[in-house]
Amino acid sequence: MKIEIDKKSGIPLYLQIKHQIKRLLETGSLKEGEQLPTERDLSESLAVSRNTVSMAYKELVLENVLSSSPGRGTFINPQALINHKLKENNSQTRITEIIDLVINEALELNFELNELEKIVCSRIKEKEKLLKNINIAFIECNQEQLYFFSKGIELGTGISIIPILIDEIYKEPDIFRERIKSIDLVVTTFFHYDEVKKFLADQKQRVLAIALDPLMETMVNIAHLSNKDKSIGLVCITDKFAQRVFQSIRQAGIKFLSFKFTISHDTNEVKKFLINTDIIITSPGRKKEVEKLISPQIPLIEFVYVPDKGSMSMLKLAILDIKREGGILEKI
Questions:
Q1: Tens-digit pLDDT profile for residues 97-133
Q2: Integer angstrom CA distances of residue 210 from 86, 184, 188, 195
Q3: Is the pTM for the entire model greater than 0.70?
Q4: DSSP 3-state helix, strand, coil percentages of the chain (rounded to 5)?
Q5: What is the CATH number of domain 216-303?
Q6: Top-level CATH class of 13-76?
Q7: Is residue 242's pLDDT more than 60?
Q8: What residue spans define the domains of the chain?
Q9: Would you state the CATH architecture of domain 134-213+309-325?
Q10: What secondary structure does DSSP assign to 279-290, as a single string?
């Protein structure tokens, strides 16, 4: 099983592993019933922590892509292959039926088939130009969340995600309005939806609100390590991210002695902050920096927020609408 990860990309390593396993399944490189490497073997071959591989495997098991059997190992779920093939076959069958209808209609209108071919090729080229790049702006108040959304969310080829801090809207409104002209879809969180919608009232772009939840494995790992006698330390970039993480941990009912955070980038200050901290958390983008400052035995957790399943479904449907229309969605 060939997997290559890029430790400089900023995309969480477990997500890279997860997505590449899915791609291997889609391309047929992984077969029904094939056993995957153990967490230890794969972590050693990729030079990552075993926990990173474990997180990727667990998510794929939850999505029924993999099946895990204690004492036997981890395997490709046969049902995942069946579902993939059915989806592929159904799509091909539907397209073939549509093409046959077009051919029959063209023949009834006395079109030569070579004429039809030229028209189809011309239309395909026109659509390719329109779909070459779909631009999605993600507007948030949080630098870390912008970073993860623009790097860690896969929406398909030809789709660019442009991160925009909400402060930029007020600091440089004219520049923002000029940038937004090339945007097909604006995405923000429910917290900022009304604010962004009001600012873009005179624009054509659709504004889509999504919900962000902490990654389940993140919360599980923190809960597993934490108790009322342990302190939690967060290394991040902004106060807003720290406040949100604190609220998420409290809402999850996780017990801890104290919660502290630093947004400093000074190495000595960060080292001092990490002293006497039992559980260390980082925002996306700062994990590698902190790893160099602590012992490999100290637990280190990257706190990641991801769109919930309902939000991802809405986002994909909105992108599909843009593709069908071949341009910017009308304001709704």
A1: 788 778 878 887 888 888 989 998 888 877 666 555 7
A2: 30, 16, 6, 14
A3: no
A4: 50, 15, 30
A5: 3.40.50.2300
A6: mainly alpha
A7: yes
A8: 13-76, 80-131, 134-213+309-325, 216-303
A9: 3-Layer(aba) Sandwich (3.40)
A10: EEEE-TT-HHHH
